[in-house]
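Let us work through a complete example step by step.
Step 1: write down the sequence.
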Amino acid sequence: MSSTRLITNKLCKKVHTVLFILLYGLFSTHAAISNRNTKSLGNKSLATTSSTSQPRFISQGHTYRAVVGETLTLPCEVENLGSLVLLWRRGTNVLTASTLKVTTDERIRLVNGYNLEITELEPQDAGDYVCQISDKVNRDQTHTVEILVPPSVRAVPSSGQITARKGGAVTLECKASGNPVPSIYWTKKSGSGKSLARIGEGPILTLEKVERLQSGVYQCTAENNVGEPVTVDMRLDVLYPPEISVEKSWIHSGEGFEAQLVCIVHADPQPTVSWFQNSFPLQPTDRRIMSSRGNRHSLNIRHVMQEDFGNYSCVADNSLGRSKKYMEVSGRPGPAEFHSAPWSKSPDSYNLTWKVDSYPPLQEVRLLYRKLMMNETFQQPARWHDVILTPSSRPLNEPLTHAMSFTLRGLQSGSVYEAIVQAKNRYGWNEVSDIFQFYTQRNPLDPRVEELEFVASSTSRNKSHNQISSYRPILLLFPFLLVLQLNLHKWH
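Step 2: predict the structure and record it as tokens.
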């Protein structure tokens, strides 16, 4: 069948060539006869014909750019054509002769005289089209057609799926075609599916030392200003061993209450997660419930008992490795949190308030405070003052939080203090609280010049007592400046 088609194609080409030769000969004979008839006229008539009846192109050769699929019309307008024949050809292929259509291409026809119309343009229609007059000079006019093709793009590989190991390099590739040649750039889609800023140019995007956060959908975009840009998505999966983080490393609970341990696990391939208490594997029970939702893995312990206190570990395994994080479930009190304002309303006292979470009643609370001596370059803390407090019973409707307060007296005005609190219940002492700083008001009736001299020592150490006395009004401003500076620093 294929050999028959090949023979048919060759035969058609030969017939087309023979037809072109016959038409060309016909046109030449027609031109020669016309010339002989013209010679039989008188010299005056010959001169008149030569000046008025020579064929001439009114249209001009041009380069046309059209988008594939559109319709294009190539003009061929001739003045004084007379009995001459107009020919359209493309290379050696004759398209039309006079009003006769020679080509078998149904998309080609003559419109409005001898203008050549081509519908449903294809990329292979690009090239030179010649409109030729069949006189002995064979005058012609050439139009050049350029077909603009919108961009198209495809992923390499065609599946658009790429896998790489953490720490390795990976190459993403896409191929684009179109006319003009499209430009290519890369973006990475966010979790909402929107493309972010450009991260690369050209058909190849190389990522070095990939991390797990580089997993996701990458988009290759091709554009050439013909039609709309086109895109193709590629999915990158980064394989890595488990990485674990915990919501809380220390979980406070009490007997009869509940404790929840949560670890967040990231891994690819998907990991298996196990729970351990004091290095012993745990299995689900009526009181121990293990659950997973996405990357969040939790262990809920209901009706906590004495033996439930201790160290726990969350262990994640996949084919690339293992990771472990530790947590502690404890009945000891939680760390104290201060709730009093940092500014005292009194120059010599301060009411310190705080809260401590503890399911069992508190047995003892220890409060330590001290004064800070400060200047522009250093601070010198004084010794700690230790106060042992006996907690009062808490309300029955508040099974967890202990709210406490204590008024510190005999403080120095215009000074900076810091305090810490530690609490104890039947399971032991909690961790020491964060340091809390507070400030006493300045007493305007007590300038306390001796202390001000210490604060201003960096600027007054080499001055005489008389000089210090002369700057005493300025030194009185130091407490305000010191407190303001400390407060601004803390706010910052």
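Step 3: interpret the result. Residues 1-51, 448-492 have pLDDT under 50 and may be disordered.
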